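2024-03-11 09:14:02 DEBUG pipeline.ingest accepted 1 chain
2024-03-11 09:14:02 DEBUG pipeline.ingest length=355
2024-03-11 09:14:03 DEBUG pipeline.predict start
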Amino acid sequence: MSLPPCEVSWFSALCDDDYEFLGVPEPQLASSFEHCRTIALTAEAGGFDNLLLPSGYALGIDTFSFGAALATSLRRMRILTAIRCGEMWPPQMARQIATLDRLMQGRLTVNIISSDLPGETLASGPRYARTVEVMTILKTLLNGEHLKHDGEFYKLDLAPPRITTTSGKCPPLYFGGLSEDAREAAAIGADVYLMWPDRMEAVKAIVDDLTARAARRGRKLRFGYRVHVIVRETESLAREAADRLLSRLDDAEGATIRAKSLDSQSVGVRRQAELRQAASGDGFVEDNLWTGIGRARSGCGAAIVGDPDQVLAKLKAYRALGIDAFILSGYPHAAEADLFARHVLPRLEHGPLTL
């Protein structure tokens, strides 16, 4: 069966998530405009379609500010800007999204995040209810429609802002979460459902479940897969690179890094921990899927490890399950982006995701 091109994105380490040796901070790899811009330009030169700009509070630099500063440096690649629901008044968020989209000449996509805010702990149900409200408000205003919203968190009656996106429509909303509340929120308001690494059978089950949930609401979802990659000329060299990445990791420091994330107790993070626990002694939980990354990282905690043919085959296997987009990363990010761009990307039929 012929599949349409998939979107292949890279990751810019705005949240101090770049290492030569996992868990060993190095000043030259810390989040800064210069360093993250280098990652972005490397990804654009390599041919990637999109670039995830993550969001954090305790770590790194601000996502929107970086995106605005980066926008005029990019000529082709999109950016996927992460925003945390509740951080900003939604009408003002709509204005910022529209402005950044114009700076990007219409090449903006948005990653909706529903984790707790700094200093706040909100139960899952209300937190995802707020997320649905934010997605609804953004889509209404950015589609140029008058907003009449009477929700639990926001009560608004206002016209859309004068500044619109280039297309006059809301950019695609990418969103992930594994809990029941998160899945329902995705079915209601997301355009692209993102998932973290898992075994093949679990990936298929998630795609099937979210497809059915969206269909019950008369909607269709596209699917994205967030995973690290370690690709080398041979499988043995790739495994050596994985071992080297962990060679200086202190387990206590790894636990400290994992705990810093605002979503460190989420269902998705717990699932990544379960994968690590189920892995073999060398950290592989299935062919070419290595969980060692998660020893010093909250969230996406596994990597595709192998030679170019193995990595390409793994990505194509995910495509056959219904994955339409990949958000990839590797350590150090600029170097691994270059390796993937040379060894694998030209062999994937890819392009920006269309909705």
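2024-03-11 09:14:41 DEBUG pipeline.report Residues 80 and 109 are 5 Å apart (CA to CA).
2024-03-11 09:14:41 DEBUG pipeline.predict end
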